[in-house]
Amino acid sequence: MHGTEGTGARPDAPAGVAGRRNAPARPPHEDHGPVRYGPLAPDPGLPVLPELAAVLAAAAECTRPEPPGGGQALREAAGGYWDRRGLHGTAGGIAAAPGAQPLLLALIAAHGGDVLMPRPCPAGWMPQARLLGQPAYHVPTPAECGGIPDPYALLETVRRVRAEGGRPTLLLLSVVDDPTATVAPPELVHEACEAAIGEGLHIISDETWRDTVHRPRDTVLLSPAEMCPDDVTVISDLAGALTPAAWPVAVARFPDTEQAAARRSRTLDVLTALGALVAGPLARAAAHALAEPEAVRERARQAAALQAEVAAAAHRAVLGSGALARPPQAGRHLYADLGPLRSRLAALGVADSMELEEYLTERLAAPAPGGHRFGDELGALRVRLDTGALLGATPPERAQALASAEPLELPHVARALARFAAVLGALR
What we know:
Elements: H1 50-58, H2 72-83, E1 94-97, H3 100-111, E2 114-119, H4 125-132, E3 136-140, H5 151-163, E4 168-173, H6 186-198, E5 202-206, H7 224-227, E6 232-237, E7 250-253, H8 258-274, H9 280-290, H10 294-320, E8 324-325, E9 333-337, H11 342-347, H12 353-364, E10 382-386, H13 395-403, H14 411-425
Parallel strand pairs: 2-3, 2-4, 4-5, 5-6
Antiparallel strand pairs: 1-7, 6-7, 8-9, 9-10
Helix pairs in contact: 1-9, 2-9, 3-4, 3-8, 5-6, 10-14
C-alpha cells in the first residue's frame, strides 16, 4: 500500500510529523506482494581496521561454521558488550546469526502473530514479515523523532487490528534510527514501551546504530531493555559501528525469562533450518570487536566524530535548498523531505519517491533510496541521503578524512560537499 491513508500525517508533511493523538484512520495493513530488492545499509566509506583484519586473517584456516546461534566465545563477547551498557545477562541468553536480516526473520517467526513497526522504518523490516506471511502494520512516529511509534497511534492501531480479527504480538522499534538518523528522547521511549507492553506486545529493539551517535556526551540514549527487561529482545548488527558491512554478523540478547528461553530455542530452530550460521573466521573477528579493545573503541569514536561533521554539512546543504530534514544525530545518513520543492521536481519529471531516487542517485553518483523503501508513502518526496560517499573516492582519501582534525577542509571532501549542495541547490 503506497497511499497516504492510515499514516496519521499530511501527505506533504515531513516524515513522522503525526500529532500526538493523531491515529491512523484504519489499520494500515501492508499488502503481501513480492519482496523486491532493497537498499543496503549506509556504507561507512572507511577502510577496514587493521587489527580486525589481522584477527580475521589469523582465523582464515578455520573450516567449520559456528553452531546455530553462535559459539560460546562469540556469545560471551556479546554478553560483555551489553553488560558494559547496563544490560546484564548470560551467554545462554544470546544468539548470533550471519547478518541482521536472517536474525530478524528467525525472531519474527519465533514470536508469530501480527507485527507492528514505525513509519518510516529500516528497509529490511517489512520484507521479513512478508516472507513469513505474517500481517504487518506501520504506525506513525511522533514529531520529535523517528524509530518509535507515537504511543496514541500505537494504541489505536492495536485496537483496530484486534477489532478486525488480527493478533498483534510484536513491535519493532529502533531508538537510534535508520532511516531518520534520530535518537528518541527517553521520555518518548518510555511512553511507547509502556503502551506496547500494556497491550501485551513484545518489543524487539534494534540497537545497531547506538555506537554511531554523533555527540554521545550531549545525547541521552536509553534502551527499552533498561526500562522493561522482561519484555524486550535487543538485536544489533555489528556492521553498524564495529565491523565492515562485508563481514555479516548480528547478535540478539533475550530477556532472562522462561518464555524468552523458549523463544530463543525456536529462533535457533529457524536459523538451523535456514542454514544461517556464522562463519568461523568471522566469529573470531566479531568476538574481538565485541570485546572492544582500544583500537576498536577509538575507530568507533573517530568514525562517529567524522560523520557528525560531514552529516551536519550535508544537512545545511539540504536546508539551503529549501528541503526539510531533521538534524542527523547518529549513523551515516540523513532523511530529507523534498516536498517543498515539488513544483520544481515536477517540471523535471519527478513526481514520487521512486522517481526521486532515480534522479538523485544518477546526479549524486551515490545511493539515494526513496522513502517508499522505508514504508513511507510513494507520493511523498522523501529520500535517505548517505554521507559515506562524501568522505572520498579512494581508500587513501577516506583514511585521510578519518585522521583529519578538520575533515571539511580537505579538498576532496570540500569538492564532494560542493557537488552535493549543487545538485540539491539546482532544485530551488
